[in-house]
Amino acid sequence: MFRLTVRDHIMIAHSFRGEVFGPAQRLHGATFVVDLELARRALDADGIVADIGLLSGLLKSVLAPLNYRNLDELEDFQGRNTTTEVLARAIAERVRARILEGALGEEARGAIAGVRVTLGESHVAWASYETGLEGG
Amino acid sequence: MFRLTVRDHIMIAHSFRGEVFGPAQRLHGATFVVDLELARRALDADGIVADIGLLSGLLKSVLAPLNYRNLDELEDFQGRNTTTEVLARAIAERVRARILEGALGEEARGAIAGVRVTLGESHVAWASYETGLEGG
Amino acid sequence: MFRLTVRDHIMIAHSFRGEVFGPAQRLHGATFVVDLELARRALDADGIVADIGLLSGLLKSVLAPLNYRNLDELEDFQGRNTTTEVLARAIAERVRARILEGALGEEARGAIAGVRVTLGESHVAWASYETGLEGG
Amino acid sequence: MFRLTVRDHIMIAHSFRGEVFGPAQRLHGATFVVDLELARRALDADGIVADIGLLSGLLKSVLAPLNYRNLDELEDFQGRNTTTEVLARAIAERVRARILEGALGEEARGAIAGVRVTLGESHVAWASYETGLEGG
Amino acid sequence: MFRLTVRDHIMIAHSFRGEVFGPAQRLHGATFVVDLELARRALDADGIVADIGLLSGLLKSVLAPLNYRNLDELEDFQGRNTTTEVLARAIAERVRARILEGALGEEARGAIAGVRVTLGESHVAWASYETGLEGG
Amino acid sequence: MFRLTVRDHIMIAHSFRGEVFGPAQRLHGATFVVDLELARRALDADGIVADIGLLSGLLKSVLAPLNYRNLDELEDFQGRNTTTEVLARAIAERVRARILEGALGEEARGAIAGVRVTLGESHVAWASYETGLEGG
């Protein structure tokens, strides 16, 4: 299996509901260093999983609606905690949808086997969500 | 699959038996940067794999009996080399046991699918051990 | 010159005033990885710049009033942008004041030559503030 | 499952064919930070996946024919793009072949379950190739 | 003193002349992770050393003529080894010249005290060049 | 000013005397990631601060008597705590002496302005010692 990863980041505000979160129930924020990993079994004709420039652009476009935002105010997350895990899944699902729409080309749509998104919230904690694609 | 990782470290002394270890047969030591990763298929009601504070505390309590110790003197490792791999397994098994005892709560006991512990011994070498849980 | 550094982090929300900040004028947030560095010309009788445990505790206590906060609501920063640079100085000045009050002991008060605080806001940007102490 | 990883690096020149590569069609170069990971289900009698010194030496010997080279001139890659993904596979396959030849010993030949090679091309992009071994 | 750093990277080919370079006399290449640090004694009216977006753009524009190039073919480096040190100075001098031309604004031109450029060539080696500005 | 840094590491055992050290009074150990930085005002005729291969070899030779050792047993450190700071100075002084003996060549002996050694003891703590050379 081949895997390709590109890195970007977002800076957001949010608050959590639930006693388990202690002081993180207050409005605070985070820098999330976002690693987007694609898996595929065989490389394309150019010898790549995907074009790094194209993939970085796709990631940036998926992150844009979240970046420099108070996530508490976004419709998509109403009534849900925007934990690192929840955000990793949301970003991975949006990337997955974009790939299935052809954002990385027709060939990649049928060949990408999986998507994994990892969000680093600090130097001592990170979370990821991994999902398959029809292509896999 | 969701994964959540927290990081801590220990500083220990030990020596190895076996010619393969060369100068590491002498009493020496290591800082192990310890990454504890939990896997679970679905998030809990709060939208998390586990509470990061709770998980960090669990890791610290598992590491405490090893930290600032000469592992050659510990009963648990008599007659065994405390290699990075052996320690990764020992720490993972203790975390696993603690989760099964309910250290992360009743819900997590049934939901955590796996535990992976990675020990970084330097900037150029690390080892990990991964095991499943009944919850998975 | 000797230097000793310890690392911690905070997670905060804030917004900026000024067109130069573009989308960062909106309420957003950041994880700041905080490195506190002390400089001194000669080590103490134990052979250290400062006790790492004591220094880490001092840093944590200085960071506590900022952690998990919306900095826009804090009195100390009213009317000022809490940029990475401004926060680095604020943290360094508080550490400096605590050292001068004796938080690291009487001997350290007279021996620490300088304090430098670096705040990493992402994997691609960080800022620091460095100041001298009477001890230097 | 146990995993052991060692790190080394190479510095190479190359160029790519294909419009997708844009400016990377020109002769340029890269430092690849190379992580070689072995997987095995049970440790050997010494309590290790493999000897770190032996494994580091194996990696260095596999990297030597590539290091400080213009990959465009190497016979092995004629007519192929030496992308990060292609190089990760080439290195992994060479390591795999060497293990099957007994480079890590007879016992390891039958016990290593898999090889994964990750090549970091920058702080924001990396790729890997993972393959099984008969031993697994 | 305040310092602000932004990170980018370039991927280049080159060769060295001189027996000291051994195999690096051959055409090879490197990824250089480039850290650009500015120093200034007092912050501007917005509370910053410089705008991170503006500074990142300045760095990218200075790196552009080097990126994805064989440095042996560039006029600017004819007859000179493009070592990590030489490149760090060349980049720092170009940034310095751009700041003096007003690339970061008129106020910054008079206030920036120094520029430091660090080039990481691998996980085990890096070099930097530091120079003052009239503003300092 | 130019600076060049190379990285290596050692794995040692030791114990400390003094109540301030708490549990670190017990025999324990550490991996120290060692960064050796040289400073010089002007590059040599080849365009370098020093040859990276030569410098890495010098560092390795200075580290060898410490590596895989119980520092409590070494004559050089009798009656002294081998803290991170003390070791940073010891390594820097040995490197300095070797440079003054000509280990990096006659030209470098007169040109190296300073030596700085940083020892990373974990992902959250490090210490350094910096000293000048006659060459500076």
Number of helices in the DSSP assignment of chain A: 3
Percent strand of chain A equals 25-35%
Largest interface (CB within 8 Å) is between: A-C, 24 and 24 residues
Tell me, what's the shape of chain A? elongated
Question: Nutshell version of this structure?
Answer:
The structure is a homohexamer of 136-residue chains. With 136 residues, chain A is an alpha+beta fold. Chain A is 26% helix and 33% strand.
Q: Features of this protein?
A:
homohexamer, 136 residues, alpha+beta, four-stranded antiparallel β-sheet, 33% strand, elongated
Question: How would you describe this structure to a colleague?
Answer:
The structure is a homohexamer of 136-residue chains. Chain A has 136 residues and is α+β, with helices and mostly antiparallel strands. Helices cover 26% and strands 33% of the residues of chain A. Chain A has three helices and four strands, in the order ββαααββ. Chain A has a four-stranded antiparallel β-sheet. In chain A, a hairpin with a 2-residue loop joins β3 and β4 (125-132). In chain A, α1 packs across α2. Chain A is elongated, with a radius of gyration of 16 Å. Chains in contact: A-B, A-C, A-D, B-D, B-F, C-E, C-F, D-E, E-F. The A-C interface holds A 7, 9, 11-14, 23-24, 26-33, 67-70, 121-124 and C 7, 9, 11-14, 23-24, 26-33, 67-70, 121-124.
